[in-house]
Design brief:
Length: 152
């Protein structure tokens, strides 16, 4: 399978995933929060209403941090090929990965143990950093894995 085709499948999937949680409130009259869309995303997010964006009269199907992760992942996935070729896409080194994921881990841990309350801003910022990290790391590894599997 060609690298571009695999990339398009991955980018389309990320876009559909993000559009799914963003548009869930638009159908609030036909899809209640306990409905299928919310139940689907509820498997990956706690969906606490006070930690979710309210839009069109209902909460997004994921919280602030999850939405920041998914949206920044999708943004990196969509915009990376605009600035670099898919063939040059390599995952970042361990120091970059740790540097981008550590703030979210610390924010969550410090909040969990009661040392420092996480805020909406801290959840969004650290979620965005994690999403960028995943957006830079996962796609090139996924593209390489599919390429290796299809060579066999």
């Amino acid at each position: 399978m060609r690298r571009r085709t695999v990339y398009l499948i991955l980018a389309s999937s990320a876009l559909v995933w993000s559009l799914g949680f963003l548009t869930a409130p638009m159908f609030a009259s036909s899809i209640r929060p306990e409905g299928a869309v919310y139940a689907f995303y509820g498997r990956v997010c706690h969906q606490l209403p006070d930690r979710s964006v309210t839009w069109f009269g209902g909460p997004w199907a994921v919280c602030h941090r999850c939405s920041a992760i998914y949206l920044s992942f999708t943004a990196v996935l969509l915009f990376f090929p605009v600035v670099r070729s898919l063939d040059s896409w390599k995952p970042p080194g361990p120091a970059v990965i740790v540097g981008l994921l550590l703030p979210m881990a610390l924010d969550g841990l410090l909040d969990f143990v009661g040392i420092l309350d996480a805020t909406t801003s801290s959840r969004v910022i650290t979620g965005m950093l994690a999403g960028v990290c995943l957006g830079l790391t996962v796609p090139p590894l996924f593209l390489e894995a599919v390429q290796q599997l299809t060579k066999r």
